[in-house]
């Protein structure tokens, strides 16, 4: 099983310490356990940035990085975690404990999580800057504010509390935005498993099947590969495809309709994000095929626009022009292409953006603009390319034959020196390939 090594996580901590500079301390907590309902939690999933830095997947954990007078003195990595406890482990599973934090996760120092409030006071003394992710967890924010107040109150003893609090996310997000080859390998695995799930869905769908039954086919492929969905799966038959965040998935899939599936899994906490739209009975109608090919042409052209140096927005601009031209050619829109684009009149049929950063989070971290301008693609950035067209079932401005058709096609693309690299190419997307696969 492909996994990141402790050396990979250490390299990330090295980079963070370097970015922090001397006399600094960084504090980062994992996610709290989320309750589903009485006595039943959601399965725990570590906070992405905490895991990115530590490789530690248990709940109730906080990492602390401290630098000293000179960055040449290195830094100290402390991990606060749950202590080993035989009875708790019998009920709730294995814990690394403080020994495991040192031996298996390469912490320089490890403490029981219950000692955090006490130990942190000493660590905060005489540090110039505190790097902290403000605004992620209100309860933890309040706790950190309490630490600062206490450390400041102790200054009469001749020590000082950090004078500056710096948003830690700004450093980690920028590092996470540029993926290493190892990270791309994990995203490729997530994409291959997700592609297999979409292929299985195309092979198993039949008129009369429930949307949730088709979702179960996807979940089977994710689960047998040790993965979980990276977001709530959308399986929308017919006009349900026009509801962008349709997740009920509780209707019948009808003969003659398309089905839109936006679903993918995460592998080792790295996400994929794929959408395919295909006919429930295996054959596109002429209207479905005409609209589908407009979306496909726009998607292929937008993928080619993911070039190093191009603006983040270039794929969107390329996609919009092809979608609008297609709508004009099919008589769904009338008017002048430049005016339609200028006034964004196409939003009647295409109301979302063409993509987003992808990584450990499906809508991954990283700014989209620098100094107020859309940033350019750089080596190792991963973006989704997901144009679509949605003709509302009650849109009386459009001939009835187009109404209720919703189509989106989504792939995951890495910007590289050799041009765009599509991670999700293993699942077919042309009309001919889809119909051939479904006819088998
Ligand atoms: N599946 C979420 C998205 O496409 O943005
Ligand atoms: Mn997406
Ligand atoms: Mn998606």
Automatic annotation (TrEMBL):
GO terms for molecular function: aminopeptidase activity. Its cofactor is Mn(2+). The keyword Cytoplasm does not apply. It is an enzyme of class 3 (hydrolase). It catalyses: Release of any N-terminal amino acid, including proline, that is linked to proline, even from a dipeptide or tripeptide. Keywords: Aminopeptidase, Hydrolase, Manganese, Metal-binding, Metalloprotease, Protease. The keyword Manganese applies. Residues 4-141 form the Aminopeptidase P N-terminal domain. SMART domains: AMP_N (SM01011). Its EC number is 3.4.11.9. It holds the Pfam family AMP_N. Belongs to the peptidase M24B family. This is Xaa-Pro aminopeptidase. The lineage of its organism: Bacteria, Pseudomonadati, Pseudomonadota, Gammaproteobacteria, Moraxellales. The gene is pepP.
């Amino acid at each position: 099983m492909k996994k990141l090594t402790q050396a990979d996580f250490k390299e990330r901590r090295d980079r963070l310490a370097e970015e922090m500079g001397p006399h600094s301390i960084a504090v980062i907590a994992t996610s709290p356990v989320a309750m589903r309902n009485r006595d039943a939690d959601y399965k725990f999933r570590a906070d992405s940035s905490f895991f990115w830095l530590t490789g530690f997947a248990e709940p109730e954990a906080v990492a602390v990085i401290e630098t000293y007078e000179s960055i040449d003195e290195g830094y100290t990595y402390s991990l606060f975690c749950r202590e080993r406890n035989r009875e708790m482990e019998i009920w709730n599973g294995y814990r690394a404990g403080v020994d495991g934090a040192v031996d298996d996760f390469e912490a320089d120092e490890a403490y029981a999580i219950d000692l955090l409030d006490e130990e942190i006071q000493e660590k905060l003394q005489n540090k110039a800057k505190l790097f902290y992710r403000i605004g992620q967890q209100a309860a933890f924010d309040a706790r950190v504010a309490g630490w600062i107040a206490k450390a400041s109150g102790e200054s009469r003893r001749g020590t000082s509390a950090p004078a500056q609090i710096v948003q830690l996310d700004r450093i980690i997000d920028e590092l996470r935005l540029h993926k290493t080859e190892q990270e791309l390998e994990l995203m490729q695995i997530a994409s291959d498993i997700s592609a297999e799930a979409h292929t299985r869905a195309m092979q198993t769908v039949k008129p009369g099947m429930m949307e949730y039954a088709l979702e179960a086919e996807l979940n089977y492929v994710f689960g047998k590969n040790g993965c979980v969905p990276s977001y709530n799966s959308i399986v929308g038959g017919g006009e349900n495809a026009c509801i962008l965040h349709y997740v009920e998935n509780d209707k019948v899939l009808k003969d003659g309709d398309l089905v839109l599936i936006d679903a993918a899994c995460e592998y080792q906490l790295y996400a994929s994000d794929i959408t395919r739209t295909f006919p429930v009975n295996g054959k596109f109608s002429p209207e479905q095929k005409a609209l589908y090919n407009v979306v496909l042409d726009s998607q292929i052209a937008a993928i080619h626009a993911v070039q190093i140096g191009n603006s983040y927005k270039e794929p969107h601009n390329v996609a919009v022009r092809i979608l609008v031209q297609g709508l004009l050619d099919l008589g769904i829109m009338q008017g002048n292409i430049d005016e339609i684009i200028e006034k964004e009149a196409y939003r009647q049929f295409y109301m979302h953006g063409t993509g987003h950063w992808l990584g450990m989070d499906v809508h991954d971290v990283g700014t989209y603009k620098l100094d107020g301008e859309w940033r350019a693609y750089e080596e190792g950035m991963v973006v989704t390319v997901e144009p679509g067209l949605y003709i509302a079932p009650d849109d009386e401005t459009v001939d009835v034959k187009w109404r209720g058709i919703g189509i989106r096609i989504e792939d995951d693309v890495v910007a590289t020196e050799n041009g765009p690299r599509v991670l999700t190419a293993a699942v077919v997307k042309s009309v001919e390939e889809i119909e051939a696969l479904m006819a088998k």
